[in-house]
């Protein structure tokens, strides 16, 4: 059974960098069938796609976040990571990592439990 | 870029049929996906490729597509179906290949 688990600080100061890691177990991140995404949800609001990465390192970012965003992959550790720079209170959200079964247009079929990141001094 | 529009809320009585719509130009060219999210939980995929149901999802969940509108139908709604529902598609305008989410619809079971 595939599992995804987010990890990282729950509190980040304004103007600093938010860093999260998603560890994938029960399957290989190096499979060419999947894209690996970050998705966030501000408290009480809807889902916002942040970006995704392919095992080769190819990335696609939400244009609204692109200037502050880096997503990377470490296939040796079966992990992918998110770095969001110059954060403000508007970046406070539950951050999810998810697997997109791109090969069969299967959608986001596995999600992490989510981790709340609060931006506050 | 494209947007996906959902009604903010839908209410139905137990046993009735709930229909949640999602509209947007992207849906004319790309598949739609539906996710169910209960409070404090991660979203769960309930429909993929417009109308396919993942294993483990009850048969009362179905999806359909017509032009730029897709519909999630829940037949014989149960109390446990009360949740937020999000549609999702792809934005392939130009060279951009991002992901779109609708704003979400809160399903209330009366």
Helix and strand topology:
The complex is a heterodimer of chains A (121) and B (110).
Chain A (H helix, E strand, L loop, with lengths): L2 E5 L3 E2 L5 E8 L9 E7 L6 E6 L5 E3 L7 E6 L4 E6 L8 E8 L7 E4 L3 E5 L2
Parallel strand pairs in A: 2-11
Antiparallel strand pairs in A: 1-3, 3-8, 4-5, 4-9, 5-6, 7-8, 9-10, 9-11
Chain B lengths: L8 E4 L5 E6 L9 E5 L6 E4 L13 E6 L2 E6 L8 E9 L6 E4 L3 E5 L1
Structure write-up:
Chain A has 121 residues and is mostly beta strands. Chain A is 0% helix and 50% strand. Chain A is built from no helices and eleven strands. In chain A, the strands form two sheets. In chain A, strands 2, 4, 5, 6, 9, 10 and 11 form a seven-stranded mixed sheet that branches. In chain A, strands 1-3-8-7 form a four-stranded antiparallel sheet, with no helix packed on it. The radius of gyration of chain A is 14 Å and the shape is globular. The relative contact order of chain A is 0.31. The mean pLDDT of chain A is 96. With 110 residues, chain B is mainly β. Chain B contains no helices and nine strands. Chain B is globular and about 40 Å long. The model of chain B has no long low-confidence stretch (mean pLDDT 94).
């Amino acid at each position: 059974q595939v599992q995804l688990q987010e990890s990282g600080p729950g509190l980040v100061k304004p103007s600093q960098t938010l860093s999260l890691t998603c560890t994938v177990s029960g399957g290989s991140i190096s499979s060419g069938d999947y894209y690996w995404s970050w998705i966030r949800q501000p408290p009480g609001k809807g889902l916002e796609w942040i970006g995704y990465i392919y095992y080769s390192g190819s990335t696609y970012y939400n244009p609204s976040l692109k200037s502050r965003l880096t997503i990377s992959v470490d296939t040796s550790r079966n992990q992918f990571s998110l770095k969001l720079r110059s954060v403000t209170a508007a970046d406070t959200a539950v951050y999810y990592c998810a697997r997109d079964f791109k090969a069969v247009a299967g959608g986001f079929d596995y999600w992490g439990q989510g981790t709340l990141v609060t931006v506050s001094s | 870029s494209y947007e996906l529009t959902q009604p903010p809320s839908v209410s139905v009585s137990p046993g009735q049929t709930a229909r949640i719509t999602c509209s947007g130009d992207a849906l004319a060219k790309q598949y739609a996906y539906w996710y169910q999210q209960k409070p404090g939980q991660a979203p769960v995929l309930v429909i993929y490729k417009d109308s396919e149901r993942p294993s483990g999802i009850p048969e009362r969940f179905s999806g359909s597509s017509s032009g730029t509108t897709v519909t999630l139908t829940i037949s014989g709604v149960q109390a446990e179906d009360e949740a937020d529902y999000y549609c999702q598609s792809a934005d392939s305008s130009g060279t951009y290949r991002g992901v779109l989410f609708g704003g979400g619809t809160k399903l209330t079971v009366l």
